[in-house]
Amino acid sequence: MRTDTKNGFFPLLADLQTALDEIDNTWQPDDEAYHADVYRQTMMSLSYSYFAYFHATPEHPDWAPLWNPVFTLQPNPDDIYLYSPISGKYCYRVSGKRGTVKILSFTTQRHMSGMIDDISQIGGHNEIDDSDFSVDEFGNIDILFSVEKPSGYAGDWAPIDPGATGMMVRLRSYDWLNEIDPKLAITCLDPVGPKARLTPSEIRDRIKEMAKFPGRKTKSYYRLQNGVKDRVGFNVFEPIRMQGALAKQVYWPACFQLNDDEALIIETELPQKRPYWNIQLNDPYFNALEYVYRNSSINGHTAVVSEGGKFRAVISLTDPGVPNWLDPAGYNEGGIYGRWFDCDSNPTPIIKRVPLTELRQHLPTSTPVISPEQRAEELQLRVQACQMRKRW
């Protein structure tokens, strides 16, 4: 006998309301544009959650998209992120081609943001990157992940927490156009039997979890961005190290704000040793701003360094005709995220707010002019490079 009716589907999605309730925690809760943005963000998170709950299992792992130009809950634009469920009960083999991306890293942990109500339970991070595993002469990698290293095992091994539930992969590229993305497989090495058909109750339960995901994710990430604004206000950087993953990385977040006729100049010294660094713009809801068709991020490969060795970038709603333009894609306020990865120093940049008409008075006289034709070519190459990456 059928225990559910055709009218029983939408109640399974009732917890989507928890994401919409977070409108009250945005910077402009009475703004219609903010409401619409949160609706869109909710649909984005819901669409991602299908991968999280229906694609793979710890017994039958497989890569699913995590963050990319579609699922934009604050991804690094240089990174393509993959996710697979795992369990500390099993051993896993990750193998394939290393490719030529700047950094390839693996993070295992207990619970993923958006998939648990109490974020304090997230932990158990273990991370490895290129400095921790070998690549053979043909570009192959082969890594064993398990709670304990098997006796006598001589190959590359990485520990996972006994309570681990997920593995995240970052394919971090500097030169989007020319670097080659990895090709990776993940295999559970323990006998688990065939992948079973889901029962009706399992399907209903997973749909309910999908509906909870946008609210959990939004609540968690709004807290991060709002915290920066509450502590230091707008147009001030607050360097931090995140708990858990990417222990080598220092972030420098800020919340930006400017009028249509203004520009923000970001200025910083650069570390002498800087294997990787970048800066990106986010919207007010912690999503990466459009970064395929907008110049909303810069990394150490694309950056133009000023005379004297400093890095200067300009945020403005219209093209200022200078190098290192960060395009806020129509937003007068939002977030900034910079990263120093494994650098020998971690300078804190400053932000100067100036009238757009006076911008060049605040830049070195040697700052070149970028013509509209040069900007169009720059953007065209960016679009091509991003579209050629493996994004999902």
List the helices and strands and how they pair.
Elements: H1 17-21, H2 32-55, E1 64-65, E2 79-85, E3 92-97, E4 103-110, E5 123-129, E6 140-146, E7 156-159, E8 166-172, E9 183-188, H3 200-232, E10 249-257, E11 262-268, E12 276-282, E13 297-299, E14 311-315, E15 325-326, E16 333-341, E17 350-355, H4 372-388
Parallel strand pairs: 6-7, 14-15
Antiparallel strand pairs: 1-2, 2-8, 3-6, 3-9, 4-5, 4-8, 10-16, 11-14, 11-17, 12-13, 12-16
Strand order of the largest sheet: 1-2-8-4-5
What pattern of helices and strands is seen along the backbone? HHEEEEEEEEEHEEEEEEEEH
Radius of gyration: 22 Å
What distance separates the N and C termini? 40 Å
Structural class: alpha+beta
The gross shape turns out to be globular
According to DSSP, the number of beta strands is: 17
The average pLDDT value, as a whole number, equals: 96
Helical proportion?
10-25%
- Please state roughly what percent of the residues sit in beta strands, choosing from under 5%, 5-15%, 15-25%, 25-35%, 35-45% or over 45%: 25-35%
Largest sheet entry:
5 strands, antiparallel
Q: Stretches where pLDDT falls below 50 for ≥5 residues?
A: none
With helices defined by DSSP (H or I, 4 residues minimum), what is the helix count?
A: 4
